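Example for tutorial group B:
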């Protein structure tokens, strides 16, 4: 089945076709003359040399199967060839009847008729090409057309022979000798074989017998050959016919349901794109006739590289991967299709074969978090029953036409029944991935928190200042610093008096001030230009409460008015000292 042998077989087949067409042509038509006899003989002997080389050098070296093994030993292959009927036919085809040319002259090409016995080489040629050709239907049609052309050729030669026997132009039925004899006879043979009619009426018994034989050949033989061509073309277009039938039935049913026109157009687009990419609507059915081992090998060559990219299966046993590749199902998504939604319970893992899918968020899916390309994997954690990892955390949408492989949760569990060790490994990896995803999500949220925003119109006095002033004793240095600023001004000591806290509790001077624990998130604070920026220092105390160190308030640099800050102050207890 190698290229060298097929090339040689092509040469042998051309030699055989030469003999098939030329022998009857030279026997009936006057195409062999004294001037071109040497040329015809040179061609004949060249074809005979090809026959001889085929029998002596090529056919005895063709290996064969014995007990399931290929036999390549030349002695054994020679013995195997000699035992076949093919060897006997080759010997008969090389019968040297051409030697009679010495006695009767070279004008009898009919002596080369035994060369036509090498028809098995012609059949073998088309059988081999049928196996290796990417379009075997073309080879089958060519084979059938060769039969038809040869029958028309033989019919034309027979018509000229009958006309020559009765005399050219002797009546209206025979060839009148005007024009190219071969073309006129071919025209007559085609009309007779196809039963077109309008042929001259036969005038004697021999002509009636000839026309009857031609009509029978046209009715049976040509009908058989044309039927074979029809079957070959029907087989070649069977998948397309089934596709069109299913598409028409589906679209008609959708129209009866009065579905929106846009949805029907999406279904039509899915059918068209699927056929354009795969030339079938059920890819798995094509491999159903193959043995399980062979299907596994095919699936591995197609999917194993993609499956190895899945982090969940990175260190798993190869036997498990070989079983999982048969579980992968191809799925096509159109532009804008949502593959999964946030919050859904995940039952499948997706592998991007080609195309692009986007991880989106937001009510309308306008914010794209990530774009996944060929070889990317998502949803692998949902394959295992891990707490916290069974629900989708984001929407995944197809950006264009995307082909994905889908692995179902039930299929994975079915495969893991026979691989308990791998099941535990996968669970550990899944838990690790859940923790990593949780940490990554937490980090992303922290990074996404807005720290600086565009300022809003700010009041002249910062909002934090009155609150801090309520907390501080009025006569403390910190309160005076906040009230009068950092300039050297005369401090006036005011007599201590009762004051009321922010929650309405009357407190005496120099007495412990107990405030209710409260947590309040203060609004954004805008600092006008020229006002010092102060910060609070928080210290943790041993007695399980937090004290606010209000004594160390530092003056900072001047900040522009367009800066805003968020501050959260928690006051648990204030110590008098």
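The residue assignment follows.
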């Amino acid at each position: 089945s190698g290229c060298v042998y097929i090339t040689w077989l092509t040469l042998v087949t051309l030699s055989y076709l030469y003999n098939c067409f030329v022998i009857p042509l030279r026997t009936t038509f006057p195409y062999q003359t004294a001037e071109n006899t040497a040329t015809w003989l040179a061609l004949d002997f060249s074809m005979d040399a090809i026959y001889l080389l085929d029998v002596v050098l090529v056919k005895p070296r063709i290996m064969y199967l014995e007990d399931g093994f290929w036999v390549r030993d030349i002695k054994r292959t020679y013995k195997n060839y000699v035992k076949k009927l093919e060897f006997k036919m080759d010997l008969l085809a090389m019968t040297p009847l051409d030697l009679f040319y010495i006695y009767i002259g070279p004008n009898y090409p009919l002596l080369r008729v035994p060369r036509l016995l090498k028809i098995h080489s012609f059949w073998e040629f088309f059988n081999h090409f049928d196996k290796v050709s990417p379009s075997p239907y073309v080879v089958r049609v060519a084979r059938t057309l060769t039969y038809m052309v040869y029958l028309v050729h033989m019919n034309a030669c027979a018509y000229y022979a009958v006309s020559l026997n009765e005399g050219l132009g002797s009546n209206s039925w025979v060839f009148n000798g005007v024009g190219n004899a071969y073309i006129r006879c071919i025209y007559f043979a085609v009309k007779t074989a196809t039963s077109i009619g309008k042929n001259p009426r036969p005038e004697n018994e021999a002509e009636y017998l000839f026309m009857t034989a031609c009509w029978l050949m046209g009715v049976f033989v040509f009908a058989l050959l044309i039927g074979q061509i029809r079957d070959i073309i029907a087989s070649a277009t069977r998948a397309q016919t089934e596709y069109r039938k299913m598409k028409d039935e589906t679209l008609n049913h959708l129209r009866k349901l009065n579905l929106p026109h846009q949805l029907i157009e999406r279904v039509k687009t899915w059918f068209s794109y699927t056929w354009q990419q795969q030339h079938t609507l059920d890819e798995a059915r094509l491999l159903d006739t193959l043995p399980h081992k062979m299907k596994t090998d095919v699936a591995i060559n197609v999917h194993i590289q993609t499956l190895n990219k899945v982090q969940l299966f990175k260190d798993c046993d190869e036997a498990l991967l070989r079983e999982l590749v048969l579980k992968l199902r191809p799925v096509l998504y159109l532009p804008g299709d949502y593959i999964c939604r946030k919050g859904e319970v995940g039952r499948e893992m997706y592998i991007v074969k080609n195309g692009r899918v986007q991880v989106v968020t937001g009510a309308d899916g306008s914010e794209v978090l990530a774009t996944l390309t060929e070889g990317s994997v998502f949803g692998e954690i949902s394959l295992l029953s891990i707490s916290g990892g069974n629900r989708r955390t984001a929407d995944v949408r197809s950006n264009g036409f995307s082909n994905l492989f889908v692995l179902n949760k039930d299929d994975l569990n079915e495969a893991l029944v026979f691989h308990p060790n791998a099941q535990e490994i996968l669970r550990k990896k899944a838990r690790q991935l859940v923790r990593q995803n949780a940490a990554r999500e937490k980090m992303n949220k922290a990074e996404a928190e807005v720290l600086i925003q565009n300022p809003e119109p700010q009041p002249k006095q910062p909002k934090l200042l009155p609150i801090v002033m309520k907390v501080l004793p009025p006569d403390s240095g910190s309160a005076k610093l906040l009230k009068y600023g950092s300039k050297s001004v005369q401090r006036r000591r005011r007599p201590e008096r009762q004051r009321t806290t922010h929650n309405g509790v009357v407190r005496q001077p120099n007495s412990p001030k107990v405030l209710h624990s409260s947590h309040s998130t203060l609004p954004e604070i805008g600092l006008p230009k020229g006002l010092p920026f102060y910060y609070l220092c928080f210290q943790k105390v041993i007695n399980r409460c937090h004290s606010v160190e209000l004594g160390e308030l530092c003056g900072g640099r001047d900040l522009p008015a367009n800066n805003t800050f968020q501050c959260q102050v928690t006051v648990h207890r204030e110590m008098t000292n």
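The CA atoms of residues 529 and 561 lie 5 Å apart. Compare this with the pattern of hydrophobic and polar residues in the output above.
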